[in-house]
Amino acid sequence: MEANAQNMEMDDDMLITYLLGEASAEQAVRVEQWLTQDVANRLRLQQFSTIWETSKTMQFAEPLDAQASLLSLKQKAIERQTQQARVVRMKRNYAWLSAAAAFLLICTAGLLFFVRFANRQMEVSTVETITTDTLSDGSVITLNKRSQLNYPATFTGNERRVVLQHGEAFFKISPNKAKPFIISTNNTTIRVVGTSFNVKNKNGNVEVIVETGVVQVSRNGNMVTLKPGERVLAKTNAPLAKEQNPDQLYNYYRSKEFIADNTPLRRVVEVLNEAYAAHIIVSRKELNSLLLNTTFKDESLDDILQVISHTFKISVEKKGNQIILK
């Protein structure tokens, strides 16, 4: 029994699956039993873990052909086994060949990890929280509540492409002229090299606001170029409409501030409804154009409404899930 345990083989794919937490219950039991059989087995798993961490930093100028790479790996594995058989018969002064074989093993296993998992799709979804995530290229994404972003674990090829399925996100893109960053959302494409901007996909419309750099936005064959302080609204069956961004309220979920600078009450209410998932209604049309000048920071909705009520001498009435300004 002991001899059989020592001779039990464990293939590389099984170890990779186990390391990534994707093994079935039966596979996990098999690997864990294998680990208990020999210290060398545990060392091998640790080496694979180290190789995986190292392979994350590998860069490739061109997209990898996964099938060709795997065939190459199999051939190298056969060559490695031949080398190992020959090492047994070699004299001590040829021991450096063992080191070469070990180096080949590390490179081969690292490439195996990269080929298999570089294009693995990741997903970040939020419900009632705001999340900040750093992508493999160093770009930083801040995702607003009730939003979803999909992206590859590692960017390969000649572009960096992500998908904003719904919601809103602020992108601070790491510069790379050779590999533009592309965002797809609701039939709209946003293309940048290195810049910062906000994207909102809501109710079938896409809004892009640029803070730094230059951004290209295209939809249905139309394209506009945005500079800092500009925004575009992409609506279904309508031309792209570029204009100056009128306020800084879009940034509330990152800055934790509501900055109103001669901002119409209509716009303030729109943002408060979004931020607090509220249902505020302005009962009189003439109130919509009232201009507010103030900054709210980390304040409750009730406190904000109290300030608005006092400023404009209007009342706030709560009726069911509605809040009525009149």
From TrEMBL:
InterPro entries named among the record's database cross-references: FecR (IPR006860), FecR_C (IPR032508), Ferrdict_sens_TM (IPR012373)
Top-level lineage group: Bacteria
Signal peptide start-end: none
Keyword terms, alphabetized: Membrane, Transmembrane, Transmembrane helix
Pfam families xrefs: FecR, FecR_C
Domain FecR protein: start-end pairs: 134-216
Any one GO MF annotation of this record: sigma factor antagonist activity
Membrane-spanning parts: 94-115
Species the sequence originates in: Mucilaginibacter agri
Official protein name in the record: DUF4974 domain-containing protein
Residues of the Protein FecR C-terminal domain: 258-325
